[in-house]
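I would like you to sit down with the record closing this message with an eye to the fold:
=====
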Amino acid sequence: MIKKFFALAAIFAATMMSFTACEEDKPVGPGPEDETPADVCPDCQKNPCECEPEAAITIDGEFADWDNLEGVQVATLPKGDVDYEQLKTFKLFADETFIYVFCEFDPENTLVFVPYFDLDNDPTTGNDSKWSGAGYEAKAEGSVFEEEGDGVQGAPKAWDPAFYMYTDSGTEEVCAAGLGAVMSSVPAPYNGGATYAFEAAIVREMIAGQYNLGDQFTMGMIQYDLSWSYIGKLPCKTLDQKDAGELEPMLTITLP
């Protein structure tokens, strides 16, 4: 009986020595097993999270998500006579990944939408022929309707513009259409069918290098018809305001 007791004691001592050695060999410091569920992203299972930022606006032709955002810049037609009135609403927003635009417009004879960019946010530099209160250095051109034959408007299509920089000799294309720089909904009836609307997201990374985007810049939008004549422009002033010498600024956007 005594021999059996000492044998069991020896086994117990050897086990405890082995356990102690394992504890001493264990690395010091937190490891994956020490992280709490709150530390680990439930989507990518990484700490820190490596997920792509979630888009602030879903480009799906449903516009309710614009209403829930703070900081959306909005231009609408002012009360009074204006030069061009088919563009009813122009909205602008940005997050870490995209620059978003929204346009509500009268679709009659519409072909192209062209946003203009004042990249340095300085109205004294660049071209000021379209907005008296802004000097723009870049633009993007893209149609939202097919053109069938000689000046015949076809079916609506997603806005997929090419991007240009103004130069001393004209314009230079810096990002061609079809490269994935823009995601857009197809213009569709809006406001009970009284107007059309579309939304789009410009991928910041696709144009940031070519446009040398800073933290803040301004944008305006012009709507062209099938003969490339102005039919809509926002922001804008009334004719009385222009006659009084008031300047026409563009919308200012601050990048997060």
